[in-house]
Design a protein that fits this description.
binds ligand LR7; elongated; phosphoprotein; binds manganese (II) ion; 5-stranded mixed sheet; alpha+beta; lectin
Length: about 575
């Protein structure tokens, strides 16, 4: 059957399930078989015969792990130590509640936990034995924030400093996106002055995370840019495997496995293996587990690199020059959202790859809502950003984006000027979205039309057929070209370049040259029930708008639009084929 898709923009920040017992194994095994789910180059493993041969001169060496100062923490009994859950002290519930909104997580508990707490080494077995090159590129860590909670921001920075080989960290750039909190001014400067590698960059107006990251990238001096959110905890050995990927190919964009720092008890929790970053229409990011049979058949190991259609967005390493070659992010994206889609499409379609590196783990506080305010409406901001992405990267598939957000079709989304972004795509000679679908994300359901074939009147068992510039009812004949229609995501009923449309005023039907922007051509098709034109200006009876339905009259062999009446069976229509689940 056909679902009526309600607009489904995630109104809340994405939650992530910590380890689950039941993997939602989806049935994409067949589709997934078409692509390389894992990278061909597996990381080198240390074995007995190699040990002797390995010396720094070989260009390879052991992983640097001993530099983790938090393995034996100062205070093993401190709350939250080793990533354990913290219990709210008796009588402090009110305070917890009061402070929650400072970050939309348990800020009270965060303040109780040491800023350099130890967390469990959650890497899959085998990671500690992996080898990386000893001449890895250096990286600049770019962490932008707006009104981040003090203890969380500090813990993020400490986790980078304590769990990264110092020689690989060129600098840590904290980009303050015009925060309003006083403690993020002098106090932060003072605190960070003890770490020579930490630099604070302050924006003079609120730019949002996209342009804030770009400001950081402009100032970065490392070979690689590593972006992080400002409420993370980098785990043991997180950095080397990311840089190793970029070192192997400068067009690889490497993401850690993002683990969960619980917003309620601040515990550090691991997540299921074998997850890819994906999206569903209208471009909502999500994770999807590779089905167990696919894992088994392809002998995918827990430590294998996983190639992803899209990245989550917040945490990744990318070669700095490559990032600029790609034209960075679209600087026209505002505040929050959509930039992960943009960069993912750009990377894949323009010759790069997005990978999740299972031996690299970073915890992130997942929360139900953004704690900061949006300069403009949050939903509209995200939709506009996604609209820009759709217009530049999705080609003919952009209709699926609009079609899955019902209101988007009519809203006339103003996405701003796109000339530069489209020219960039041309200049980079990027591949088509169709190529992306076939080669990177074959399991995405992306039917270019919603329904097709003959269009049958359910009660009469007769079909619509083209006659000159109009349409009539006649016996169904699937082989007749004149009876073939496509129902598109923009709700047009198309016969080639021609669209079925009601004649204004008299309710008759005619063919009109298709035009995606002409609202008068749109038909809402609900399941297998009725067609009705949208409320459009030219269908006006007296001085009120009315819902009109397509109606067949068999004796006359004619079609017309008439007031919708659920009791009338001659207003029920059905296409031969539907492509939605
Ligand atoms: O206006 C802003 N200015 C900022 O500097 C808004 C945000 N920010 C900062 C903010 O303080 C934080 O450090 O930008 C960072 C990301 O903002 P969050 O933490 O509110 O975003 P999120 O974790 O809810 O959302 C995910 O999607 C975003 C879409 O634009 C970004 O790509 C985030 O980086 C991204 N986070 C992750 O990928 C972590 C995993 C969550 C998922 C999925
Ligand atoms: Mn975040």
């Amino acid at each position: 059957g056909m679902k009526n898709n309600e607009a489904s923009f995630s109104s809340l920040a994405l939650q992530r399930a910590a380890v689950s017992q039941t993997n939602q194994a989806l049935t994409e095994g067949q589709e997934l078989g078409k692509i390389n789910l894992t990278a061909k180059t597996r990381p080198a493993q240390l074995n007995q015969s190699q040990t002797k041969a390995l010396s720094p001169e070989d260009g390879r060496m052991h992983r640097v792990l001993r530099i983790d100062a938090t393995l034996s923490p100062r205070d093993p009994k401190a709350p939250g130590q080793f990533g354990r859950p913290v219990v709210v002290p008796h009588g402090k519930e009110k305070e917890v509640e009061r402070r929650w909104k400072e970050g939309n997580f348990n800020v009270y508990l965060s303040d109780l936990i040491p800023v350099d707490r130890a967390i469990e080494d959650t890497r899959p077995a085998g990671c500690a034995e992996q080898l990386v090159h000893n001449n890895l590129p250096t990286t600049s860590i770019i962490m932008c924030f707006v009104d981040e909670v003090w203890s969380t921001l500090l813990r993020s920075v400490h986790s980078v400093l304590n769990r990264s080989p110092p020689h690989l960290i060129k600098e840590i750039l904290l980009v303050d996106d015009f925060s309003t909190k006083d403690y993020l001014k002098d106090n932060l400067d003072k605190y960070m002055s003890q770490f020579p590698k930490v630099r604070i960059l302050r924006l003079k107006e609120r730019h949002g995370l996209i342009r804030a990251r770009l400001a950081g990238a402009q100032k970065a001096t490392g070979d690689v840019l590593t972006f992080l959110d400002s409420h993370v905890e980098c785990n043991i050995g997180w950095l080397e495997p990311l840089l190793e990927r970029v070192y192997l190919s400068r067009k690889k964009v490497a993401c850690p496995v993002i683990e969960v720092i619980n917003d309620k008890d601040m515990s550090y929790m691991t997540v299921d293996n074998f997850q890819r970053g994906i999206f569903v229409w209208p471009m909502n990011f999500g994770w999807r587990t590779i089905p167990p049979d696919v894992v088994a058949k392809n002998k995918i190991k827990e430590t294998d690199i996983i190639r992803c259609p899209v990245m989550a967005g917040g945490l990744f390493s990318i070669d700095k020059n490559y990032f600029f070659e790609l034209g960075t992010y679209d600087p026209g994206l505002d505040v929050w959202g959509g930039e992960n889609m943009e960069l993912s499409f750009k990377v894949w379609m323009c010759g790069g790859e997005i990978e999740i590196v299972p031996c690299s783990r970073v915890g992130h506080i997942f929360r139900n809502d953004n704690p900061y305010s949006f300069p403009k409406d949050r939903m509209k901001t995200v939709e506009r950003n996604l609209g820009r992405v759709a217009e530049v990267w999705l080609d003919e598939y952009k209709e699926l984006f609009y079609g899955h957000g019902d209101h988007l079709i009519d809203q006339g989304l103003d996405v701003g000027n796109l000339t530069q972004q489209r020219e960039l795509r041309k200049k980079l000679k990027c591949k088509s979205f169709k190529w992306y679908l076939e080669n990177v994300f074959p399991d995405l359901k992306a039917p270019i039309v919603r329904a097709s074939g003959v269009l049958i009147n359910v009660a009469l068992g007769k079909c619509i057929s083209i006659r000159n510039t109009t349409a009539i009812l006649e016996d169904c004949d699937g082989s007749s070209q004149l009876q073939q229609f496509n129902y598109t995501w923009l709700r047009l009923i198309k016969h080639g370049a021609w669209c079925l449309a009601p004649v204004p005023d008299n309710g008759a039907l005619r063919l009109h040259l298709c035009d995606n922007r002409n609202k008068g051509l749109r038909w809402l098709h609900k399941s297998t029930s009725v067609f009705r034109p949208e409320l459009v200006n030219h269908i006006v009876f007296g001085n009120y708008h009315q819902l009109l339905c397509l109606e067949g009259d068999f004796t006359q062999k004619t079609l017309k639009v008439a007031p919708c009446d659920p009791a009338k069976p001659d207003q029920k229509w059905k296409f031969e084929n539907y492509y939605e689940d």
